[in-house]
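Lab meeting prep.
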Amino acid sequence: MDMEQNVQLTLTTAHRYADSEDDRIDLITDGLMRPLGEGWELEYQESELTDMGETLTSILIQGEQVTLIRTGPINSQMVFQQGRRHHSVYATLYGNLEIAVSTQRLENHITAQGGVLEIDYTLEADHALIDSVAFRLAVRVKE
């Protein structure tokens, strides 16, 4: 396969915040999947459900590393590698926030036929834990 495919993405993001109630977002959206070296690039438009409307999200899946890139009103790049901590900047209309992402678990089962990606990680801002996240992405190739 050397071209992009239309896919349906089912995203489940469960947040456990340090200082407020747990939260869960379920989103089903259409997107694109294209080959990327030995991996895949998934791309979709955020929705108003996620409070990030007008933001384009790309997920680059390359072996043991997953990179999530958002462009639009919110600009960020988060890198996930099991057992590793990565720093980045989360840029919003209200200013920039320095964040750190620590990945506890990353399981990638995405193929040309679709599959599932699961990432458990914690998010820190200004050196304080703000969120534990269980992220699950299911990819289904559309006919």
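Slide two material, second protein:
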Amino acid sequence: MSVKIRLRRTGKLNAACHRIVVTDSRSPRDGRFIENIGFYDPRHKDEKIDLARVDYWIPRGAQPSETVTAIINRARTGKPMSAPQAAAPAAAATESAE
């Protein structure tokens, strides 16, 4: 059995929220899961994950998804989620000033 740590979509239409779950890789995205270990809300920039349970599952072969890996890294370093940077307009203004 291949175990994954991934997001499970919850919330309303156009107002998604996610739970971080440990699940069998063959299960559907919103289907059966083994354990709920956290949540991720991209709209409110809110997330929480139980690092003790992550440390339990990863040595036992659980593979986190890319997004869950980023959430784990942010939780370990203590950095909050950052808002997307609007770097393109600032770069265009610098080029036109030269």
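Talking points for slide two:
The chain has one domain: 3-82.
Residues 66-77 form the longest helix (12 residues).
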